Amino acid sequence: MATLISHFYNEEYLLPWWLMHHVPLFDYGIMINRGSTDRSADIIRKLAPHWELRDSSVPDFHAVKVDKEVMDIEKGVSGWKIVLNITEFLVSRYGIQLFQVLDSLGGKMYSVRTITMVDPLGYYTDPIYAQPLVKQRYHGLFPADPQALYNGRFIHKYRSGGYTAGRHWTIKSYEVLLIPAFIMKFSFSPWNHAMIARKLQIGPTIPEDALKSNMGSHHLFNLHELETNYLALAAITEDMRRIPEFRSLRLR
Questions:
Q1: Strand intervals (E) in the chain
Q2: 35: domain range?
């Protein structure tokens, strides 16, 4: 049994690709609606009709409360489980056999390394829904150091993940997953109006008490600041088709 859990908030642009990618990989999914006002819930009902759709008990983007909610949900799920944002795509060279591979490794929890996807300036046209998004983009910041865990995501068989705020760290024992498997995180890709609007909508949903505790402040920016961040990363993004470990995913 393998279960995918995710919060979503007005994600109708990325959701079709995200669902078409993950539904074949997981036995079950639990999608938590954090007050969406767009077509996100309808898209889930259409593309993942056998998955569970529920409303969040956390109306604002409070990292600690959101993570507690997913950990409580995890406690009712057996087998392998992972919590991903809608920007995060789990990819491996094993396809639906990934969880059998994880069983064979013998561990209970693994940190999956993250590739931060960043479009080079003026390189791509807008992607299309007729093709997997992971096959339409191949520029990003590849984790050169296998032990570099920042922004990694955990896949595990514990009762819950024991995450600290943001789910990039845990109090549980784990190993770094060094087989050809990654999280492709579409942070600055596709870089278009829809993705820019998606990023700008997050900051206003962060409650004051979270900001006072320095949680979520990295989501606070205006359009100019966001474009400046993008341009800085676009200057160093690389064509990952040149990297043997990326090629071993066999996405192309």
A1: 2-8, 28-33, 52-55, 80-83, 88-92, 109-112, 114-118, 139-141, 153-156, 175-176, 181-188, 238-239
A2: 2-247
Task: Write the pLDDT tens digit of every residue in 79-94.
Answer: 999 999 999 999 999 9
The alpha carbon of residue 4 and the mean position of all alpha carbons in its chain are separated, in whole angstroms, by 11
CA atoms within a 13 Å half-sphere pointing along the CA-CB vector of 109: 16
Q: Which of 154, 155, 144, 6 is CA-nearest to residue 87?
A: 6
Phi, psi of 206 (to 5 degrees): -85, 125
Residues of the chain above pLDDT 90, percent: 77
In a domain? residue 229: yes
Q: From 199, 250, 186, select the one nearest 228 (Cα to Cα).
A: 199
For the segment 122-138, what is each residue's pLDDT rounded down to a tens digit?
A: 999 999 999 999 999 99
Q: Of 67, 69, 62, whose CA–CA distance to 211 is shortest?
A: 62
Contact 170, 154 (CB under 8 A): yes
Domain containing residue 73: CATH number: 3.90.550
User: Domain for residue 163, yes or no?
Assistant: yes
Share of the chain above pLDDT 70, in %: 88
